[in-house]
Design goal:
The complex is a heterodimer of chains A (533) and B (598). Chain A is mainly alpha-helical. Chain A contains 20 helices and 8 strands. Helix content of chain A is 68%, strand content 5%. Chain B is an alpha+beta fold and 598 residues long. Chain B has 4 domains: 141 residues, no CATH class; 166 residues, no CATH class; 104 residues, no CATH class; 97 residues, no CATH class. Classes of the chains: A mainly alpha (533), B alpha+beta (598).
Amino acid sequence: MTPLRPLFLLAVALLTISQAQAIDVTSMERVPVQEGGRKKPFIVFADEALMSISGKSQFTKEGTKISSTVAISSLWLTPRGWENQPLILIGNKKFKTQIGLDPATKLFSYRDLSGNEPLRAALQEVSALRAKNPKVKLDPLQREASTIGMRLAVFEGLVSGRGIMVLPTGAAAWSPLDAEDPALLKIREGFLSGDQAAYDAGLELLRNEQSRENPRFQADPSKIAIEVFYQKLHPFRWAWILYLFSGMSLLLLAGGRIGYALGWGFALSGFLMQIAGFVFRILISGRAPVTNMYESVVWVAFGTILFALIFEAIYRSRYFLLGAVPVAVTSLILADTQTVILDRSIHPLVPVLSDNFWLTTHVLTITLSYAAFALALGVGHIILGKSIFGTKASPALHNYLYRTLQVGVLLLAIGTILGGVWANYSWGRFWDWDPKETWALIALLGYLFVLHGRIAGKWGGFGLAVGAVLAFQCIIMAWYGVNFVLGVGLHSYGFGAGGFPTAVGFVLSEFVIVLIAVLRHRGIKAARSSANA
Amino acid sequence: MRRDWRGVVLTALERKRMVEARQKNSSFWRLIHLLGSLQLALILLATIAIACAAATVAESEFSTKVAQVYIYKAPWFLIWLGVLCINLFAVTITRWPWEKKHTGFIVTHYGIITLLFGAIVGLQTGFEGNVTLHKDKPPVRKITINRSIIQVESPNDTALYVMPFDAASARPSEKRPRVFEVPASDLKIVADAVSENLLKEEKLLPSESGAPGVMLRLTSPRMGQTVNMPLVLEGEAPTEKDFFGLAKILLQSELPPPSPKKDADTQVVFGRFAPVVQDNGPSTGVKVLLSEDGKKVTIISPDATSATYLRADLMKSPLQAGGVTITIEEYWPDFEMREGRPSTKSDLPNNPAALVRIQAAAGDSKPALVMVADVDGIRYQLLRGGTSQAAGKAKVGDSFSLGWADWQLEVIATYPKAAIVTEVKPGPVLPAGESGIPGFRARLVSPSIADAPQRWVPSGDITALTDGRNVVRIGYGLELRPIPFTLKLVDFEVPRYEGTETPSNFIATLEFKDNATGEVKAGTARMNHPASFPGTFFANFTGINYKFSQAEWNPRDLGETTLQVLYDPGWILKWSGSLAICIGIAIMFYFKPKTGNA
């Protein structure tokens, strides 16, 4: 009976929105919604929905910022007027030009796009391609068109209410509320008039409706409560702030016992924050927290600090923490801010990943090796930095670097081999030159090259530092490049797009740093030998 | 002071002198130290890493095949890996006599050799392949191996000769043709060109021994596609062709009697009142009843059998029963008409009502074009859901709309007696990531006749080559390997994540039957948990075992699944080598005896 829906929408529209009176939406946040294969609290649903439409977790409406929960509630309860709000993100400038939109504008209204003839043609082209070959590889413009089509569909699902599954039906799949559901009417009434009591009463009605079905089809209230808490806590944001403090204490109060103790304290608190964050994610998803790019970035930051703390406990030099903090802070800030590229939402896993034993052993080992190499990168940077500023790194510092590289090589070797054993079971072969496994091997060979060259006496501690920085570019390729640049192979569940200029910028700046350090190092060496002569 | 494994005491200095002395005195030791040198190791590490990196880029830019042909499976790369093995072995010898401190080093390096050796054993004695199984099909006895072969039928005996040949990697050309001797004859097959994209064009030609035939051309302006389709009616049964899975095209001797239009029944059924049926022609004969509390639905087929279902279940997924599809589209617990529209007064089941849609036979739901060939054109009917939507006549040169998206049909030719001739030609080079039908160009050469016609041999087909006197049939494609047991798919399940179509697993229930003993064994292949045969502990441990892992599924046919098959006697070497590498590295880094007075 879908043709009836627009009529209901019209009826709703008659109750014009002059709303945005400060209503307390706390009780809405806890309402379970079924979406994307699992049940999540409304606050998470709203955050993900707004993020997928607009790329932001807040919406600025007429100059005031409103939270995702309020924005999505408003789209659902009072859709009228939203079609004129600039809400839908189009990132690709070329595509905007192609469909005749201003390339400088980021957000567009539903009305702008729904009447756009070139966009409609582009969407039709994509669906025709998909109909011919469901696995077709789209070019960037077609991919953008498909993403915008998805954003429009999410928008339509919200304003029609069809995309908000809040009602258990006595089956696995939930259904949306009927347009005339008393709970919905009551919630809308309260939301419109700013009547908190009516609003809460409506939500109470909804809760009653939800609890009417067989409990096995309902959401687990404790899980929902944990997820609401996690969503509001932002443990990984706290972690980078604390790590930043740790780094500053170590740098600003250099040499002093207090500075070192403070550095430890802050790093440890950030570390505990990360543990808490992982515990919550594991409780919510029921699996190891390393299943997409976002999780692996956060996990590598964690591993880097973990190894730094272990080494600090052994050697008591502040270099490990000093090396780890920039790496951890950078990755956590990226994870916190680059939300379009690094998707933090929790999705159900593709079948091949949904085996906790292999996921835990293989992926955790591999990502921990990335973490050890990231720490080596940090320590390597310190050595290179010392060269650039004309001081010589001590043999102890070179030894620290060697120790971290050892951890990385051991873990990467184990992780790559575990990957082969897993592939032997899941894909029916041990090794078949899949790009992801090949790049793990290339990275391993790269580090082995660095270590063997050291043994052969081709280079010393400084060369080891150069090697640690250069070989890390192989890790970047294995970690980011295979998924986001090459985009072929069996590890396709991790594929994504975006961040390419940043990654290239990172790699290039590393090369520049190495180059400067090598030149300086040569200069100092030459100066020394001439001084000796 | 240190001791080697024999307990001989050797200081570091003595050791260094001894190594230097043996290199000076013996060319054997010089060679060992050269082959095991760190220089060589560094060159190997660097070149292998760079080659692999280049291969991944080639794979992304061109195709997996290119990466494999030029790097991963190229002879020079395999030789290079062999050199790596030699280097790894020689370096352990250079440390002779071994001391305790060498343990990790030796274990690691031999681990890598064992692993690579395992890979060779696996390649030589094992195989990888795949098998597509269907629930409704008989047990499978053969597995498709990832290895291209040609099969040649000799004209002088009835035997079939098999030779490994992959046109894509061999790349024969006119300058460098590939010649195959036809066994038991003095004939030769010369392959001198390859194509990754062979196109088969079917043509309709008049033929005295033929049957009534029609040549059609289907065009979709929106998709920019044109399809030529010849059909010949042989015998009594209609000739049927599938059109992209979208529709069916049938050539028959007689048109079916026009059946009346009947889309579907739409009924509003009540828990407490008689149903309201929308009258549009004859009904499907199916009755739907709603229980008084609105929770259950009973469906009564025309043959009076009945079944009861939960209403909520039917609202989620349509039910297929008795040749019809039943969908509950809407439900009102407390039905009333408000402003001319159905709605509900409350959510209490006071007057439950449901909107039911009954659609005729799901099997016939595909649209179809049925036609009869005439002298100057065709007579046709367009069917949808088993009922005729349109009928008419089209002369040669006429075109009309099919009503399937924007597809248009043009009648190109009709013949009372015709035959279909297939012509194979290379098409344009395909963009990266797309694959067509590969194949090669070949001709038959005999001592007496030099100028035989050339023909393209497409993969997956049998092609007849002739020099005008002899005929040799040649088949090209992936090898089918018999297995010592039969394999049947008993059941295939695809559980989904709640409320979505996203699969959460794939579960294939299999039945193995041993050819020798007749013993039957059940197995289950789930994602990450392969089924295996014989599957005993020993078999799993050594890899002398057939392992079936989930590989692909067909969303359009849930009775079908494709399994990856692995038989790998190198497995025991691979995993023990792997274990040695990990343990060796750990020993090297963390359990090294403290160096004394070095």
